[in-house]
Amino acid sequence: METIKLELPLVGVKFLTDSLDGFEDVEIFAGISYCDAVRNATFGKGLVVAPGSIGVCRWSPIILGLKEAESDFENSLEPRLDSVIAGVYVAPLSSFPDGVVPDIVIVRGRPAQLRKIAEALGPNVMQKKYTGKIGWSALGVGERGLSVKVLLSHASNRLLGQLYRSKWFDAAIKRLTKSEELSARIEKYGKNAVADMSICRNSSVMPYVLDAGNITYFCAGGVTWGGNTPANMSSGYPYRLIEPLLGDLDYPAK
Known about the structure:
With about 250 residues, this protein is α+β, with helices and mostly antiparallel strands. It contains 10 helices and 8 strands.
């Protein structure tokens, strides 16, 4: 098939379910969110996101199994890892340690690029459970034209990309999302209105739990904390499913 050229490196994800054995010398991430960790790992080195690593985002620690779900808000988040794990290793796919096979590969790019990848992999590779639900997936959304939700996602992401350059906006977002009460309200009223948890859930945990690929629009955190351009989208695939196609993908640092 024709080579698909991507502008961003692929990121591998390894769920360390039992312990950090073998990863003791890897830097432990400390920052805002999981999408921030993926941003740092994209052009840098491998990082371990461990319990307590994420200081602001209220969603990703629950989704990733880094914290046990306790409140109604936390129990409402799905799909998620149900048991607490030791950590998540994220690194550029090209620099994954010898002998370590990633569970998931995150691929980000323009909609046409991700569409070509999905078509090359075939329909049975992509998840179907959340098809048509824009909060979880771009698959099946707006198939008969641009829906209001798609337009709203594009517009809100472009606005967020511009506002995030302001220090006051950055500080306000951090204060807002540190509060579980306010985060729960955001989740309640924004649920499935726009993309949500695009990197932690839609591109990492969902492909892992469902053993299938997924494509998603970016959420607010993916654009702001993750540093992704709103013109792009994200996707995640179990390594065993995308591995046969990797030779046909051209990306930085391959």
